[in-house]
Amino acid sequence: MTAPSLPDRLGDDLSHPIHAELLTLVGRFRFATTRQLARVTRPAYRSSRSALRQTARHLVSLNRAGLVSHLERRVGGWQGGSQAAVWALTTRGHRTLTGSRSRQRPQLTSTTFLAHLLAVTETQVLITETVRDLPDTTAQVTGEPHSWRRFLGPHGQPVSVRPDLHLTVKSEQYRDDYFLEIDRATENPARVIATCWTYQRYQRTGTEQQTSGAFPVVVWLVPSTRRREQLRRHLGAEPHLRADLFLVITPDELPELLRSGPPTTT
Q: Please, which residues bridge with residue 178 across strands?
C-alpha cells in the first residue's frame, strides 16, 4: 500500500497546496520568518505584498492545526534586532512531515543560535531568489548535518569540516560548488583561519574531487564590510593557504557570485 502524500496527511482543512509547501519549507529551514517564507513562495502570488499577506494567513492556519509554532522574540544581531514572528515545526508538525517520533522544542533554542539559524535561512532564501531568475539553472542546497565532511587527520584521527550549507549551482554549461560558512562576526579571526586550514587539509585528501570533480570554494558570508576586510587581511597574512579555495563576501555580494561564478586564479 502506498503511503499517503503530505497533502493527504494534512486533511481537508489544509487542502491548499501552499500549506504542504510551507510546512516543508519550515521543516527544511528549521526556523524562518513570515517574510522569508513569503519570498520563497512569491511566484504563487501576483505581488510581493500579496505573497506576504497570504503567507501570514496560511501560517496562522498551520498554527491553529498545531503543526507550526511561532516565537515572538527580539532576535539580537539579526536584521537590527527587529521583532519578527519566527516559525518552527511543532512535534506534531515534524511527525506529520517526516514520520519521525522525535520531539521538537524550538522555544529552548538560544537567541544567539536562533540569530545564526535565521541567517542561514536568509542565505537559502537569497539563493532561491537569485537562481529563480537565471535561465535553465538549478540550485541544490544541503544543510547540516548532511553538508558536513569527515576525513582522517595526519595521525589517523577523525577530523571534520562542518559548513552550514553545501551548494551546487548547475546549468548545461557549468557546475559551481560551494561550502558556505555563515559568519556572524562573533568568533575571533584566529578561529576562522584555523577552520580554513582544516578545509585545506580536507582538500588535499582528494575525497571531494573524486565525488564531484572539483573542490568547492569555501565562502565566508559575513554581516558587514568591516568584518569582510578583517577576515581578508587575516587570510592574506597566511602565505601557505591557497587563495583560490576561499572567498569572503557580504550577503549582498552573493547574487553576483551565483550569477558569475567564483573568480579564478593562476
A: 167, 217
**What tens digit of pLDDT does each residue of 4-20 get?**
788 777 876 777 889 99
Nearest by Cα to 120 from 251, 261, 23, 19:
251
Say how far apart CA 238 and CA 41 lie, in whole Å.
Answer: 43
CA–CA dist 199, 218 (Å, integer): 8
Cell of 104: 521538537
Kindly state the cell numbers that stand for 262.
Answer: 567564483
pTM of the model: 0.92
- Taking alpha carbons only, the member of 117, 152, 140 closest to residue 33 is 117
Q: How far is CA 79 from CA 83, 115, 184, 249, in A?
A: 9, 9, 12, 17
196-202: long-range contacts, CB 8 A cutoff, minimum separation 24: 196/235, 196/238, 196/241, 196/245, 196/246, 197/241, 198/159, 198/161, 199/161, 199/245, 199/246, 200/241, 200/242, 200/245, 201/151, 201/153, 201/159, 202/149, 202/151, 202/159, 202/161
